Amino acid sequence: EEGQGVEANAVEAARWYRRAADAGYALSQHSLGNLYLNGNGVELDYGAAYAWFLKAAEQGLAYAQNSLGALYAMGAGVPKDDVEAVRWLRLAAAQNDAKALYNLALCYALGRGVKKDDAEALQLTRRAAALGHPRAQEIVRRIDRR
């Protein structure tokens, strides 16, 4: 996919991801889901992205749980459901996934799927920043300068 040691080829990457995904390998299921989500090497298909993310998420892969949360928040491939988005984001955040922590912080800041809670949003943003999430780090820097 990225051309490490070979020429980058998204179609070929999709073929190899599919082989590993069909064998139950969660990381490949998530990677294949990302290809469908972006229409990279395969036809754009939110439903297929959802299906592959779900397989990986059910195996406990935090990246996939975060991706499912994002799909539910956007209503891409599934009906928009902020409560379900938060459920998946919480599972990934419990594994210290920086993206999920940041996305969950946004839910608390905006009151999407949860009661609006600025203190919880800040606490989650700080956790995401500590794990290297660039946007969370920027927000924390701005807050701490005040």
Unreliable segments of 5+ consecutive residues: none
Helix content: 55-70%
Overall, the morphology is globular
Oligomer: single chain
Describe this structure in words.
- With 146 residues, the chain is mainly α.
- The chain contains 8 helices and no strands.
- Helix 5 runs antiparallel to helix 6.
- The longest helix is centred in the N-terminal third of the chain and has 13 residues.
- The radius of gyration is 16 Å and the shape is globular.
Sum up the structure in keywords.
mainly alpha; globular
Give the arrangement of secondary structure elements.
Elements: H1 10-22, H2 26-38, H3 46-58, H4 62-74, H5 82-93, H6 98-110, H7 118-130, H8 134-145
Helix pairs in contact: 1-2, 2-3, 3-4, 4-5, 5-6, 6-7, 7-8
Task: Give me a quick take on this structure.
The protein is mainly α. Helices cover 70% and strands 0% of the residues. It has eight helices and no strands.
